[in-house]
Amino acid sequence: MRRIHKRDGAVLITAIYCSVAILTAVLLYFTLANKIHGSVNWECNLLKRENAAIQAEAIVKCWFGSSVSGDGFINTSEFIPGSEPKDDPYMDLPEDLLQEIRNQYKDICIQATIIDQNYGDSFVSEADKMNVPRGEPSMLLIGAEGESRDVCFIKRYHIRITSAYSNEEGVPIVLSENVLVLKEPSGTIRAIPLYTKKQ
Question: How many domains does the structure of the chain reveal?
Answer without folding.
Answer: 1
